[in-house]
Amino acid sequence: MHDHFSLPPGGNKPPACNTGVNSLSGARLSPSWGLDWLRLSFPESDVHFLTESLVASGFYPSPSRGKHGYTRGYEFRDDPLSTGEATCFIWWGGDAMQSKATIEVPGSSSETLFLALSRLSVAFSVRRVDLRIDYDGVAFLTGQDAIVNVLENWPYRGITPKYHKIDDMGQGTGSTLYVGSRSGSCLIRWYEKGLQMRDPMRPNWCRFEVELKPKKFEQGLIMWAMLVHGKRDQLARSGFSAAFLPYFVSAENADKIIIPPEQKVRDFDGRIDVMVTQYGGLIGEMLQRSGGDWTGVSDMLKRAFQRKAEVLSLASKRPISDLDEQEIPY
Where would I find the Replication initiation protein-like C-terminal domain in this sequence (predicted)? Predict the structure, then answer.
């Protein structure tokens, strides 16, 4: 095990970058994070507009089968005569999809399509985004040792992510080290891209990838905004991936960026719906105790508010009659 990246056991932050970190950073082929996969959710009502926008940008659609539960689909290519891999896909339709559609952009097309999509007035929400940085002249085992060392000295509380390796066993087809789970919100890949691509000019080409999948739709909206505003460094730190960035991108520390769910502004009826969802069981019990009489439920609530007002009165040492209207919870 090389000693080029060591974390103190139980520490909150990895140390600042050392010489080993800088040497790997200097071998980067790309100066910043690139996109390697993009899957976005958007309103189904925008499918026609998005299709027209892609056609106007020089892409050619053809019908395809729906995936991931969708019933309809298009696949797009930048050459109308091409029968190879599609540049991107759009899927929509299906009662279970809640009027949502999906556009998926695999691999090398992600950067080009992102530029086109980021100019559109469509409410995109990230479902999956892969960020990558490429290196040349860095031994795969060097990066592997760094990753394992970080895992053995995990800087965060909670469960340490597991890792596994697909080894080419010296066959020259390229090895891959995975950290995390494909079903989780964060997955790390470190692999020999040059060997896997059979690129004789770059046999030492390695790639570090961070795959992120937000748990909530609202978090996906924020992640899309971060992409549009060029905040890929912060986005790469939004998962446990932050622990590895001091080594791979010379980050000063491994503080994780927490992406909070967007707070929804609800009208009065919406707030009532939330209350019923949270307390429906209790309200049902109150209705049962009152013999199905809603007036009885109202009386129970009035008595509860009165008891709380009395508690406030005792706490403030003021009679209820002197409490401000805003202080009385009814």
Answer: 169-219
* Gyration radius from the chain CA atoms: 27
Q: Is the pLDDT of residue 219 over 70?
A: yes
Handedness of CA 296, 301, 307, 309 (dihedral sign): negative
Query: 328 pLDDT exceeds 80?
Result: no
Cα(234)–Cα(236) distance, integer angstroms: 5
The closest of 42, 49, 101 to 70, measured between CA atoms, is 101
Residues 6+ apart with CB under 8 A from 131: 33, 34, 35, 36, 209, 210, 212, 232, 235, 236
For helices 268-289 and 294-316, the axis angle rounded to 10 degrees is 110
Length in residues, the chain: 330
CA distance readout (Å), 260 to 124, 271, 279: 17, 20, 24
The rounded distance, in Å, linking the Cα atoms of 33 and 227 is 11
Give 16's pLDDT tier (boundaries 50, 70, 90).
very low
CA distance linking residue 275 with residue 329, whole number of Å? 16
Q: What is the pLDDT of residue 46?
A: 94
CA-closest candidate to residue 54, choices 14, 94, 104: 104
Boundaries of every domain in the chain: 19-39+70-248, 268-327
Question: 3-state class of 177 per DSSP?
Answer: strand
What is the layout of strands, in order, in the sheet containing 163-166?
60-65, 72-77, 88-92, 100-106, 34-43, 125-136, 205-212, 186-191, 176-180, 163-166
Contacts of 243 (CB under 8 A, 6+ apart): 14, 150, 154, 155, 156, 254
